[in-house]
TrEMBL record:
GO terms for molecular function: transmembrane transporter activity. The chain crosses the membrane at residues 57-78, 98-115, 127-146, 152-179, 186-205, 217-237, 263-286, 298-317, 324-347, 353-378, 390-412, 424-445. This is MFS monocarboxylate transporter. It is a multi-pass membrane protein. Belongs to the major facilitator superfamily. Monocarboxylate porter (TC 2.A.1.13) family. It is found in: Membrane. Residues 1-31 are annotated as: Disordered. Residues 11-29 have a biased composition (Basic and acidic residues). It comes from the Eukaryota. The lineage of its organism: Eukaryota, Fungi, Dikarya, Basidiomycota, Pucciniomycotina. Its main location: membrane. Keywords: Membrane, Transmembrane, Transmembrane helix. It comes from Rhodotorula toruloides (strain NP11) (Yeast).
Length: 458
């Protein structure tokens, strides 16, 4: 799930025509050569140009891929953890109780989006990445030692959630700073695809190792991979030296003005309702196919198939969004997600399970890529980008916290079918309806923008 609040620092890069808000003050020197550059602190500065390539830009992009491969790739492997814990370490707990571990992880990730982005704006990326990497490695090794509920919660939810929240948005913003808007979408999509690629590889490892060598051994394999790749990422990634750090503008006045706009409420609530339902299949797909008697091969590869489809769509959806507008693309994508959650009820055969994973994975991957740009598309100024995305992510954080536990409670309260299988009807109705409500709210937000801008492509 590669979701990113966009930093206000990167938003400043998009000032039209690359103009710098700098007032030349002539002194006693040669005519036309300024001795003092007076900066208007109320206006964002744009760097003189974008490299749009070069060794440092490509090395930073590769480093970003590695960061998201390890971190968000592991987060998107949660379904295999949920399955393992339900059947072994936490078999005495309800699915709803176990789901709190994953949902709290997402909550901490999203709630940190705004402060971590503002730290990036202030020029602290060179500290955020190594500290976040160390915290991530500590958390993953502690996870391998965890056997009790509170231990799993502290290591996975708190430690890994904080580490990911510290590096996720700044990593994407650092990569974005090297590319102009015309090329940025492709490279951002490539970095986001690293998360989906990790979520293809890691479930294959865990689903093969957990039954044979146990949970601790499987997690330690992931931990050693993470240590090596995150070390390499810290060597590769470098923030641009020609962009001076600056104090971000105050957020509260902007937030207050945004909340007076109906489009803001519709977009933020729309994103929240979509995320309320979308994570349910991601958390439960492996348990679902196993409960319905799918072959061991399908159980093992259901999550990798879902994330492989997401990987492809994350790269390609940006092209459509650039052409037709983020909100215009978001409405049909989220509608498809809602429909596929209902369709999950019929994915009880091998072919049905594979088809569901492919279509749902592609749709969810597309949404994760365009969610933050959809929030940002409401902006009247580039200075609003980071705050708008951060505000929306506070709504998303709350939805991510409660969605999967509520689904687990519904699953536990629903009587089993006549054949003794778990009954997912209530879960799918809850998730599908929530997502479709979100799609409707996004459609209203789009309508507001169409009227405000006088164009269909918003």
């Amino acid at each position: 799930m590669s979701v990113s609040p966009v930093s206000t620092h990167i938003a400043a890069d998009d000032v039209e025509k690359g103009g710098n808000d700098v007032e030349d003050v002539k002194g006693d020197g040669e005519a036309g050569v300024p001795e003092v550059a007076k900066v208007d602190e109320e206006k964002p500065l744009a760097p003189p140009s974008f490299p749009d390539g070069g060794r440092r830009a490509y090395m930073t992009t590769l480093g970003g891929v590695l960061v998201l491969f390890c971190t968000f790739g592991t987060s998107n492997t949660y379904a295999s953890f949920q399955d393992e814990w339900q059947r072994n370490q936490l078999k005495d707990y309800t699915p709803s109780s176990i789901a709190w571990i994953g949902s709290a992880h997402l909550f901490i990730l999203f709630i940190m989006g705004l402060p971590s982005g503002r730290l990036f704006d202030a020029g602290y990326f060179r500290y955020q990445l190594p500290i976040g990497s160390l915290l991530w490695c500590l958390g993953i090794f502690m996870l391998s030692l965890s056997t009790e509920y509170y231990q799993l919660f502290l290591s996975f939810s708190v430690c890994l959630g904080m580490a990911l929240g510290l590096v996720f948005s700044p990593t994407l913003s650092c990569v974005a700073s090297y590319f102009s808007p015309k090329k940025r979408t492709a490279f951002m999509g490539s970095v986001a695809a690293g998360a989906a690629l990790g979520a293809v590889v890691f479930p294959i490892i865990t689903n093969h190792v957990f039954p044979r060598r146990g949970f601790p051994f499987g997690i330690r394999i992931l931990a050693y991979i993470h240590v090596a790749l995150l070390l390499l990422a810290n060597i590769l990634m470098r923030p641009r030296n020609d962009i001076p750090p600056r104090k971000p503008p105050p957020a509260l006045p902007l937030i207050s003005s945004f909340l007076k706009q109906p489009a803001t409420w519709c977009a933020c609530l729309g994103c929240a309702f979509v995320m309320l339902g979308m994570f349910i299949p991601i958390f439960y797909v492996q348990v679902f196919v196993q409960d319905h008697g799918a072959s061991p091969t399908v159980v093992t590869y259901a999550l990798p198939i879902l994330n492989a489809a997401a990987c492809l769509s994350r790269v390609s959806i940006g092209v459509a969004a650039d052409k037709f507008g983020n909100l215009t693309v978001a409405v049909p994508v989220t509608t498809l997600i809602g429909g596929m959650i209902f369709a999950m009820l019929g994915a009880t055969s091998t072919g049905g399970a594979v088809a569901f994973c492919v279509v749902f994975g592609a749709a969810s991957g597309a949404w994760v890529t365009i969610m933050a740009p959809s929030l940002i598309s409401l902006s009247a100024s580039v200075r609003e980008f980071g705050v708008r995305a951060g505000l929306g992510f506070q709504f998303v954080a709350l939805a991510s916290l409660i969605g999967s536990p509520v689904a687990g409670a519904i699953l536990g309260a629903t009587p089993r079918t006549s054949s003794g299988e778990a009954n997912y009807l209530g879960v799918c109705v809850f998730g599908g309806c929530a997502t479709l409500v979100g799609a409707g709210l996004l459609a209203v937000a789009r309508g507001c923008q169409v009227r405000a801008k006088g164009t269909q492509w918003v």
